[in-house]
Each structure stands twice: as structure tokens, then as C-alpha cells.
């Protein structure tokens, strides 16, 4: 028996992360009751994005062209390459820092149990970029999870094989945080990777 259009709409909203049956139902009713024009804009934008947005051949970030604007920019420092897990991570770094190098988006992290290995992360493409000899430092910005740390170690080995200096984003006590509220793992990591304070 085929689903009604309303059931199909509710089911379609459930593809979004964190959206269950009730949330999907609320969204569907809201669009139909109050936002039909907005719903049409959403449908048009989603259809166009799915059809026209692919991946940059250099960095694997989302792009409408073969090479994204960041990779094509002559103003970026090609000696610096920052490896991130996702396009959202790349955007966060771009917006929060003054980083002017290039990126490599893994689109995930090593997770053998989920069938995600070096090939799925495009590490053959990354190895080719490192072999070109232009990159001098690989900044590893994977998340501080078990899989993220395993991925970071793999990337560091890959960088060293191509005589590229690997570096890792610092992890530790958040700015404005208080030690008594920091979790034990973060505090232990921060304590173990402490650095000398420069003279003022």
C-alpha cells in the first residue's frame, strides 16, 4: 500500500540528523499550514543543491565547480594544508581563525568497523598532493575522539613519508573555562601537552 503524500513528506524530513517521528511531523505540518512558499523555496534549493553541488577534485570540499574557490585562490598559502573531517569543520576554522592556507576534507574518519578506511577518506589523493612537494606542513585538525586520534596518527605517518611536517591542533582547557568543571580526559590531555610560557 502506497503512503499518502503527507506520510511521504514526514518520512522525508526524518532524513535529517536528530529528527525523529514527532519532529518530522511538526515540520511537515508547519510547512503545510504556515510556510507553503518557504517550503517551495526549500524544495527548489534542495533539488538544485543535490543536482549541482559535488566535490572539489583538490580538497574534496563541497563545490559547484571542479576546483573550489579556496583551492583556486592565488591568495592562499599553498605551503600549509589543513586536514579536517568535514566541510563543517573547514567552515568553523575559516570563520574563527586567520588561517590562510589550503584544506583537505576527509569526509569522515578512519573507522574499520564501519567500513571506512584510507580509500574512503581519499588518502590516496592526499598522498599525491603531499608528493607534489609544495606542502611543507600538514595541520591535522581531526576531532579528539578515538577514531579522530587514530586518523591523526595515520595522517602524521603519511606526512612524514613525504617529508612534510605534521602538526596537530592543541586540545585542552577551553578559554574562559574553570578546571573543576573540565572533564578528566580533557584535563589529562591538556596537562600532558603543556608548553612553556613565552616571556612577556
Automatic annotation (TrEMBL):
Organism expressing this protein natively: Lysobacter cavernae
Known function: May play a role in DNA repair. It seems to be involved in an RecBC-independent recombinational process of DNA repair. It may act with RecF and RecO.
Tree of life domain: Bacteria
Pfam families: RecR_C (PF21175), RecR_HhH (PF21176), RecR_ZnF (PF02132), Toprim_4 (PF13662)
SUPFAM superfamilies, per the entry: Recombination protein RecR (SSF111304)
CDD domains: TOPRIM_recR
Domain annotation Toprim: ranges: 79-174
UniProt keyword annotations, A-Z: DNA damage, DNA recombination, DNA repair, Metal-binding, Zinc, Zinc-finger
Similarity annotation: Belongs to the RecR family.
Residue spans, zinc finger C4-type: 56-71
Protein's name in the database: Recombination protein RecR
Gene3D superfamilies, per the entry: 3.40.1360.10, 6.10.250.240, RecR Domain 1 (1.10.8.420)
SMART domains membership: TOPRIM
Amino acid at each position: 500500500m502506497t503512503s499518502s503524500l503527507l506520510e511521504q513528506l514526514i518520512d522525508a524530513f526524518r532524513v535529517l540528523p536528530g529528527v525523529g517521528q514527532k519532529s518530522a511531523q511538526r515540520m511537515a505540518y508547519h510547512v503545510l499550514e504556515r510556510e507553503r512558499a518557504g517550503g517551495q523555496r526549500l524544495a527548489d534549493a534542495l533539488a538544485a543543491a543535490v543536482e549541482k553541488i559535488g566535490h572539489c577534485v583538490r580538497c574534496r570540499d563541497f563545490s559547484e565547480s571542479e576546483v573550489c574557490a579556496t583551492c583556486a585562490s592565488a591568495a592562499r598559502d599553498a605551503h600549509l594544508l589543513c586536514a579536517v573531517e568535514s566541510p563543517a569543520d573547514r567552515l568553523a576554522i575559516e570563520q574563527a581563525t586567520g588561517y590562510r592556507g589550503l584544506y583537505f576534507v576527509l569526509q569522515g574518519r578512519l573507522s574499520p568497523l564501519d567500513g571506512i578506511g584510507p580509500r574512503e577518506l581519499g588518502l590516496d589523493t592526499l598522498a599525491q598532493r603531499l608528493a607534489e612537494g609544495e606542502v611543507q606542513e600538514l595541520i591535522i585538525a581531526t576531532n579528539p575522539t578515538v577514531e579522530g586520534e587514530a586518523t591523526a596518527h595515520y595522517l602524521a605517518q603519511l606526512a612524514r613519508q613525504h617529508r612534510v611536517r605534521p602538526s596537530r591542533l592543541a586540545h585542552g582547557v577551553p578559554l574562559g573555562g574553570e578546571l573543576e568543571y573540565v572533564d578528566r580526559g580533557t584535563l589529562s590531555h591538556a596537562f600532558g601537552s603543556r608548553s612553556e610560557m613565552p616571556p612577556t
